[in-house]
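User: Can you help me understand a structure? I only have the sequence.
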Amino acid sequence: MNATDNRGGIRGRYLLVWIAMCGMIGTSVGMVKNCTGIFFNPIAETYGIGRGAVSLTMTITCVMLALGDLLSARFIGSRHFRKKVWFWSAGVIVPTVLMAVSPNIGVLYLLHVFRAFAGGILGLVISTIIINRWFVRYNSLVTGVVLAVSGLTGALMAPVLSAVIELTNWRIGYLAEAAFMLLFYLPVLFLPVSFAPEDLGLPALGAAEEPSQAEETAPASKDREAPADGKPAAGKESAAIPLTLMALMLVYVFMGNCISSLSQHLPGIADSAGFTTAVGAALVSVCMAANAGGKVVMGMLADRFGRKWPAVAYASLIGTGLFLMLTVRTVPAAFLGAVSVGLAFSITTVVASLITKDAFGRDKYSRTFPVISMAGTLSGAAAAPAIGSVYDFTGNYTLAILIELCFAVTIIALILLIYARAGRERSI
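Assistant: Let's start by predicting it. Here is the structure, written out as tokens:
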């Protein structure tokens, strides 16, 4: 099979790779991160400690996921790919099983350290690196769907695991979570999937297309693409990373993650505005739907129109929604605001990955995106309590939403600056 045989869609080994990446990201983000909170209350009751002490597991998870993402390209490559995937998937599943017999909160902290780090190794960065190697055509769509799975997995698994905990206890809940993790890892463990298509004697999907078509989905860089082991191409090891571009990207992901962190405060925003608890819960549901759907739509738009203008459009929609939430104190406006917060997850994941590839080129992606991803994860972890502190200081969410609105407007300028700067870098 060659790439040109797949013009009608994604088939064969390419489809299997897509499925495997969905399983990986569904576990690392969908369960390791997004399902951590459902265990807080029952664990606190069992150990007789405060919920704040238990919630520290979320902080540990965010930090270690970020660290794992940062180092993933060093640990995963073409050499011994299958063995490494087995090792790191065991690093996620085994600590989850051991959590079920944890005697105290200290052991639980330690197990979260190991589990989250392994989840980061098989997380956002390495999955997008593999996608970039396997897909030239449909690259944005595949990236969008894979990253959307993280939100869908959390939305589906959280109530399932909560029901297990309610019917039994949180220890059985961890065993059930470990079983689901194994299920999600099965595709990458057993399907004929590799780090790069060349490892299986295949070209990247769309690699044989005419240059004009390839440029439409993955704008060319003057530098040669990195080899499949994740290291820079020969002669490029010492190529400098443009510091101005990196600074712009770091500010971009910081602001984007600050906006998406507003999702954790949607019930509080509804309560502060005098809406019912049901409205607050509905805002969260709408936000998560926009989170998942927005990533898929962004992938489709980016493949059709390029990355820059769909990204600008999303940032504009986010700003509009936040403006309505801030100025029009009605339920419909609150729902539009919740949609805008959900779209911010696309800005920090799908768009961040695609813009990084456009700005730095594929050869520098594995050196730059881990840092960008880690910065985004850590800023997101810090933003939620910061928003809460703003509320405690002012007594409402008005100032916090206004700051997020300013961030959305700034993100539009940052996207345009990043592309302008990247164009100048390539012309030097």
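Now, to help you interpret it: Residues 1-6, 210-238 have pLDDT under 50 and may be disordered. The CA atoms of residues 14 and 134 lie 7 Å apart. Let me know which part you'd like to focus on.
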